[in-house]
Design a protein that fits this description.
Elements lengths: L2 H10 L5 E5 L3 H13 L4 E4 L2 H10 L2 E7 L7 H10 L5 E6 L4 H9 L4 E4 L4 H31 L4 E2 L2 E2 L3 H13 L6 E5 L5 H10 L8 E5 L5 H9 E2 L11 E2 L1 H4 L4 E5 L6 H13 L1 E2 L8 E2 L3 E6 L3 H6 L5 H7 L2 E5 L6 H18 L6 E2 L1 H9 L5 H15 L4 E2 L1 H4 L22 H15 L4 H8 L3 H13 L6 H4 L30
Parallel strand pairs: 1-2, 1-3, 3-4, 4-5, 8-15, 8-16, 9-12, 12-15, 17-18
Antiparallel strand pairs: 6-7, 10-11, 13-14
Helix pairs in contact: 1-6, 3-4, 14-16, 18-19, 18-20, 19-20
The structure holds adenosine-5'-triphosphate and magnesium ion.
């Protein structure tokens, strides 16, 4: 029996929680404390309500057994004081028959339960059964309080920066699921930090010492992706002169992060599902089953319900991967984080560029806080880096931080005018171009907005550069929407870097 309190407390807290008995009847306190000590609990006794309150304020007790009628402060008043002072101890009221009504009232006010005198064998058995339950409740709430207070006020978690409520809930989910092997699906717009969340899940898990292997399913052609995941045997295909381990084997004991997982070809999805279910893989051209110990994390910014409906994503794989889902909100919905991130990036890039920049001026802040950041944290990071490079003073002004195409007159016009007589292909190109400009030259995001692949976006832009764009701007009547990128290298904007997309004053 003496195991019980120890095991309950051992699971939830470093020290077993104590019990306080508050009653002015010596016969009761002596008897009860002997019985409870016999059960393995550590017990203290006080003889009035005020002493009980003093003890409960000074020390942590899991449960207080409080007589309803005792000197100085009765049971009900004691309960009220505990609540007012946010003392988390669970309260079990001991009551005489005449005061059962008050005991019921005490329960309505938050007492855990009540027990009636006389404390005969039956009542004592009930009490013995009640105490571990009350202690469990105390411990669970204690754990929740500790977690909440650990995450409260948190501005950073692993490599993530953020103090908004939504980011703190993300930290809380990571903290809770990281130690398990459950697959986690991370959702969110481009640039919201999905990969950083995946890394945090790895580093906060028991697999942290094992490898973290990230694979972008959209960037790799099918054969290469398959080879990367499962490896191959010697002679599996022309040119495979030696065997090769895939990610599953190489990162056994670690984590595989499948980025853009909705882009995975369906026959690889079948193989992946099998690997997840059996924890075994077969290399390309191989017969041997190889056991692997892997945790899978996946991310996507696609609408998965649509991908499933369109037959692009297997529903069974989705359920396998989405045991837990983490949804990263867009940066524009996390005003609390924008300033924190902007200041942090400013410090980092000033140092990297050897510049002494103390902050953003008011007008720059105003723009930073009001812009809708379609490219999320990635866009903010790039904008601050560019601003640091462009800045000539000790503060960042609006001219440094606002991209050229968004200056003078604010946002891009939202509507696109297609002249009568234009072909559908031309209209499509202009739509791609306009969207490309509105995303600050982010081909991936342009694709997402328009429902095209990044490759299709690039090829439209290239075609525009090589062919139709030879026409003069007055021919097609389309204004220049390409931001001046000579000094503003944006990672995604390779294709139309030089271009003849004619300039027009705005
Ligand atoms: N909360 C954050 N704190 C600090 N840096 C962040 C945060 N979120 C994102 N970043 C930075 O922004 C950039 C984009 O993040 P990440 O690659 O994780 O986004 P993503 O959601 O995976 O985007 P995509 O869908 O385009 O792959 C990275 O440089 C990352 O370091
Ligand atoms: Mg990513």
């Amino acid at each position: 029996m003496s195991q019980k309190p120890g095991s309950t407390a051992g699971r939830n807290a470093a020290k077993p929680a104590k019990i306080l008995i508050a009653d002015d009847e010596a016969a009761i306190t002596t008897g009860l404390s002997a019985i409870l000590e016999d059960e393995g609990y550590s017990v203290d006794v006080v003889e009035d309500g005020q002493s009980a309150l003093d003890a409960l304020s000074a020390e942590r007790y899991g449960v207080v057994l409080a007589d309803l009628k005792m000197p100085k402060l009765d049971g009900l008043a004691l309960l009220g004081e505990l609540q007012q002072r946010a003392i988390p101890t669970e309260c079990i009221i001991i009551t005489g028959q005449a005061t059962v009504d008050s005991a019921v009232q005490a329960m309505q006010q938050g007492a855990y339960d009540y027990i009636e005198k006389p404390l005969n064998a039956e009542k004592l058995n009930r009490l013995k059964a009640l105490i571990p339950k009350a202690l469990d409740k105390y411990h669970v709430q204690q754990t929740n309080r500790e977690l909440a207070s650990k995450l409260e006020g948190l501005t950073h978690y692993a490599e993530l920066t953020g103090q908004s409520d939504s980011m703190r809930s993300v930290y809380q989910i990571i903290d809770a699921v990281a130690p398990s092997t459950a697959s986690v699906l991370i959702l969110g717009e481009s640039g919201t930090g999905k990969e950083l969340v995946a890394r945090a899940l790895h580093t906060k898990s028991d697999r942290a010492k094992g490898p973290f292997f990230a694979l972008n399913c959209a960037a790799l052609p099918k054969e290469i992706l398959e080879n990367e995941l499962f490896g191959h045997e010697k002679g599996a295909f022309t040119g495979s002169i030696s065997e090769k381990q895939g990610a599953f084997e190489m990162s056994s004991g670690g984590t595989i992060f499948l980025d853009e997982m909705a882009e995975m070809p369906t026959d690889i999805q079948v193989k992946l599902l099998r690997a997840l279910e059996t924890k075994q893989i077969r290399r390309l051209g191989g017969k041997k089953e190889i056991s692997v110990d892997i945790r899978i994390l996946a991310a996507t910014n696609k609408n998965l319900q649509k991908a499933i409906a369109d037959g692009e994503l297997r529903e069974d794989l989705y359920y396998r991967l989405a045991v837990v889902e983490i949804d990263l909100p867009p940066l524009r919905e996390r005003a609390d984080d924008i300033q924190l991130l902007a200041n942090e990036f400013l410090g980092r890039f000033s140092q990297q560029n050897g510049k002494l920049i103390t902050g953003f001026d008011d007008a720059a802040w105003q723009w930073v806080m009001s812009y809708h950041w379609p490219g999320n944290v990635r866009e903010l990071k790039n904008a601050v880096e560019r601003a640091v490079i462009m800045s000539r003073g000790t503060t960042i002004g609006p001219a440094d931080i606002i991209p050229r195409h968004l200056r003078n007159g604010g946002e891009m016009p939202a509507a696109l005018t297609i002249p009568v007589g234009a072909t559908a292909a031309e209209a499509r190109q202009q739509l791609v171009l306009r969207t490309f400009a509105s995303t600050s030259g982010d081909a991936a995001r342009t694709g997402k907005v328009l429902g095209l692949s990044e490759r299709e976006v690039r090829s439209e832009l290239l075609e525009l550069l090589n062919g139709t764009a030879e026409r003069s701007e007055s021919d097609d009547g389309v204004p220049d929407m390409q931001p001046d990128r000579k000094k503003e290298p944006a990672p995604a904007a390779k294709a139309p870097a030089k271009k003849p997309l004619a300039k027009k004053g705005r």
